[in-house]
Write a structure and sequence with these properties.
Layout (H helix, E strand, L loop, with lengths): L1 H13 L1 H25 L6 H4 L19 E2 L2 E2 L3 H10 L2 E3 L5 E3 L7 H18 E8 L11 E3 L6 H10 L4 E5 L3 E5 L6 E2 L7 E2 L2 E5 L5 E7 L13 E7 L4 H4 L2 E4 L5 H10 L4 E5 L2 E5 L33 E6 L21 E5 L5 H12 L4 E2 L4 H5 L17 E3 L4 H5 L3 E6 L2 H14 L7 H5 L2 H23 L3 E5 H6 L1 H11 L6 H8 L21 H20 L13
Parallel strand pairs: 1-2, 18-20, 18-21, 19-20, 21-22
Antiparallel strand pairs: 3-4, 5-9, 5-12, 6-8, 7-8, 7-12, 10-11, 13-17, 14-16, 15-16, 15-17
Helix pairs in contact: 9-17, 14-18, 16-17
Protein name: WSC domain containing 2
Family: Belongs to the WSCD family.
InterPro entries: P-loop_NTPase (IPR027417), Sialate-O-sulfotransferase (IPR051589), WSC_carb-bd (IPR002889)
């Protein structure tokens, strides 16, 4: 046998072309066998598995909907159940706790038909496709919440997000954008125009350029419609011209918060104002800006249909923000012509640069760029992230640079400064937990945190000092002031960018100021990570920056920077 093998080996070593020919023929034959079994093969089924009593259909019987076949529903946890679970793939729970199937890749015409049937029935249970619709950035077809993911968007993900918020329709656009709404406010177009594949799902269409693939979410009962939780905005004085400030009014003898919020949500308005037995709906405008809150006792009139809720009075309104998205500030695009100047949005890492970019994009309607490239930011909708920072297509450029050469490359700058104690912790969380994650307890208690403070605390000071020294036309904005008085501070920033300030657009930004990169406050440290030595060093840096600001006739650092 060994001699035969050596002869075989020597034969092909002398004639390598024959060897490769033999290899190609072998692979071709194997491929043909595989394809033949995939198209005409029939999976072998034991007698027990083929029995209807075991939960698997006999030949010719109607195929069951596998979404209903799981432990506890349809069969007991027996050997037969285990074999069925292995055959149809593992089960897993969705976010809402409901059972869902994970389809495997099975050979055979029977298996492919089963898989296609399952997908269709699951889609029909969850949502029904109703067509391709025209969409316009100035007047959206679906005017509820929206979100983007330029890497992992799927039809199910969009439908699931809209359904969780109680919307009736979900629409996908550009292969990566998801829009929700309670009614479609656009015309139907040809199916051929929805021709863009989903970024996270091959073979599925997710709209097109300004075209929405729209699904109607199948809710069990109309009475079961939920509009999500409304946000309490406060007690406000009745506006002078009520019909212009809040254009929709309805009398409600049995007034409740839910009824008024549901009405305004149905009418596609982001504000619901309760005034005793009347419900008013509208947008935040200069006539009703929601800037001057009143004492809540002035609105403390009980609702007629809710014993423990206040429904306001004819003179003082209780205001809630509904789940309807204010689309007056959602349109964004690149600059129509190349900008003649480069404006930096400069900050120390962790000082809120990404948040400021979100605000600027909403306020101006133009994308912001970056000195770097962060794929996670691009995937979340910051489309200017991929442009070269000198492209001139973006309204301003994010940068953390602090060298003279890098600073002098810009014609103007917005310098965002944040409390170093907060900024250092935010950047440490980002470094070890991502944009909206948190560093682990071991990182705070280990050597990473002291080393980080030792390296980054001096940079916090030198970053500001360098931009004040080498920067041209620098507008200083304190992160804390931007949070406290967004309307005024964002107006200053927009003016420097050379864009006309539209007050209604700034009010729209106020209602959606958080964006997708707000770190939750639920996981705050239970102790102060700064030692006495760290505080002593950082306080010296704060005084240095404060003196530099005042030396240029600017407002010094906010009082809450120190003492610790």
């Amino acid at each position: 046998m060994a001699k035969l093998w050596f002869k075989f080996q020597r034969y092909f070593r002398r004639k390598p072309v024959r060897f490769f020919t033999f290899l190609v023929l072998y692979l071709t034959a194997g491929s043909l066998v595989f394809l033949h079994s995939g198209f005409v093969g029939q999976p072998a089924v034991s007698q027990n598995q083929a029995s209807p009593a075991a939960g698997v259909p006999a030949e010719g019987a109607e195929l069951p909907f596998l979404g209903d076949l799981h432990l506890g529903r349809g069969f007991r946890d027996t050997g037969e159940a285990s074999s069925i679970a292995r055959r149809y793939g593992p089960w897993f729970k969705g976010k809402d706790g409901s059972e869902r199937t994970k389809l495997g890749d099975y050979g055979g015409a029977w298996s492919r038909a089963l898989k296609g049937r399952i997908i269709r029935e699951k889609e029909e249970e969850r949502a029904k496709y109703i067509g391709c619709y025209l969409d316009d950035t100035q007047s959206r077809a679906l005017r509820g919440v929206s979100f983007f993911d330029y890497k992992k968007m799927t039809i199910f993900r969009c439908q699931d997000n809209c359904a969780e918020r109680g919307y009736l329709y979900a629409g996908l656009e550009f292969g990566a954008e998801c829009y929700c709404g309670h009614k479609i406010q656009a015309t139907n177009v040809s199916e051929a125009e929805c021709d863009m594949g989903c970024k996270g799902e091959r073979g599925s269409m997710c709209g097109g350029a300004n075209r929405l693939s729209v699904y109607r979410l199948q809710l069990a009962q109309e009475s079961a419609r939920r509009y999500g939780s409304a946000v309490f905005r406060g007690c406000f004085r009745r506006p002078d011209n009520l019909s212009l400030a809040l254009p929709v009014t309805a009398a409600m003898p049995n007034m409740s918060v839910d009824k008024c919020v549901d009405l305004c949500t149905e009418k596609e308005y982001p504000l619901a104002a309760l005034a005793g037995n009347a419900c008013h709906c509208g947008f935040p405008t200069t006539r009703f800006p929601l800037h001057e809150r009143e004492d809540e006792q002035l609105c403390a009139q009980k609702c007629s249909a809710e014993e423990f809720e206040s429904c306001g009075t004819p003179s003082y309104f209780i205001v809630y923000q509904t789940q309807v998205q204010d689309n007056r500030c959602m349109d964004r695009k690149f600059l129509p012509a190349k900008s003649k100047q480069l404006i930096a949005l400069a900050s120390f890492p962790g000082a809120g640069n990404t948040w400021a970019r979100h605000l600027i994009e909403l306020a101006t309607g133009f994308y912001t760029g970056s000195y770097y490239f962060d794929g996670s930011l691009y995937n979340k909708g910051f489309k200017g992230e991929r442009d070269h920072w000198r492209s001139g297509r973006t309204i301003c450029i994010k940068t953390h640079e602090s060298g003279q050469k890098e600073i002098e490359a810009f014609d103007a700058a917005i310098l965002l400064i944040r409390n170093p104690y907060k900024a250092l912790m935010a950047e440490f969380n980002r470094k070890y937990g991502g944009h909206i994650g948190f560093a682990a307890h071991a990182h705070w208690k280990g050597k990473e945190w002291p080393e980080f403070v030792r390296n980054y605390a001096p940079w916090w000071a030198t970053h500001t000092l360098d931009w004040l020294k080498f920067g041209k036309k620098v507008l200083v904005v304190h992160f804390e002031d931007l949070k406290q008085d967004l309307f005024v501070q964002l107006g200053r920033m927009v003016s420097l960018l050379g864009v006309a300030v539209r007050e209604d657009r700034l009010l729209c930004v106020e209602s959606q100021k958080d964006g997708n990169f707000k770190r939750s406050g639920l996981r705050k440290l239970e102790y102060d990570p700064y030692t006495a030595d760290m505080q002593k060093v950082i306080s010296a840096y704060i005084k240095m920056v404060d003196a530099a600001l005042k030396g240029r006739n600017l407002t010094g650092v906010p009082d809450d920077y120190y003492p610790r």
